[in-house]
Amino acid sequence: MSKLQPQAILVLPHLRVQNANAISSPLTHGFPSITAFTGLMWALQRKLAQAQIPLQLLSVGVVCHHHQEQVTQGYVRTFNLTRNPVDKDGSTAAIVEEGRMHLQVSLIFAVAEKLPSGAASVVVQGGEDRMADWAAQVGEIAAQMRVAGGSLLPSRPVPGKKVRPWMALLPEDPDQRVQAFRQWRRQWLPGFALVGRDDLLADRLAHLRKKDGQASLLDAWLHASRFNHEALPDPDGKPALDGKVRWGDPLRAKGSGWTVPIPVGYAALSVSHDAGTVANARDMATPLRFVESIYSLGEWISPHRLNDLQQLLWRAEVDETKGLYRCRNDYQPKSALADGEGQDDGWDEEDDDYVDD
Question: Among 117, 179, 206, 261, which residue's beta carbon has the most beta carbons within 10 A?
Fold first, then answer.
């Protein structure tokens, strides 16, 4: 993980992705894994180095504006599959289930400039023209790449929105940085940003262990991944006059947020094998390690409810000793801060183009 401090943001706005991978892990589907976007970040980083663009991509944020999973409609939904060509002997080829979806997303990268010894930085006040050139080149490079396995289509004009890649300097003053972020986030509306909610998983585990002391994190994750309807008490504690019983999920009350189960990385199942020692590996020049997915909870939240850029961004963390390779996000809910310090309603008098829900 890079120790460079972010100096600017690089935004690829309103990308139209066709046939992205909708199966994010062995247990989840509906949106690509956050590791798909960190993988895109690293692949893009390698191409920037080849193009001699001196930018280091440090972390990535994802804002989804539209999604359409390719499934049949109905009470039970199945993925729309394709029929593969017949085998060389004329027999029918096996169908491999592939989940696909169409997306419109904005990707926000925190970047730093990689400088040779003694060179002057361009990512400073007054370097806007050079940063604009870099953003345009990044857009051209990204247009030739895959995003979560999907193909990029040309962006369509969006009234009042920037659809071309752009860069902006991160102010050093904390107050100015917050004010700049309030301006940037307007460009990502309407949409929803994916943030991490590991705290909800811990809360759900504590709730389950009140009834079952043997409950595990997997039990908590599965419990939080579904609606658990039960008879709800009357708000005033009295029996309903009509004799009807209200049903609902007491842990998913109105306004509790759009929480979802997500994969956040990988845990090692084996020791690291030297490059070339494992047969049929994808890359014989890179060490190989067998892993399985790590799961947590995330939340889709409107960007106007975020108050700092770091709440939006995901970064990679590696612990070789424990064999953990996972993504981290610094979002903290309002309830996690004392008296709501550092939080607001994501609003000011200039944000009158949008209606708070």
Answer: 261
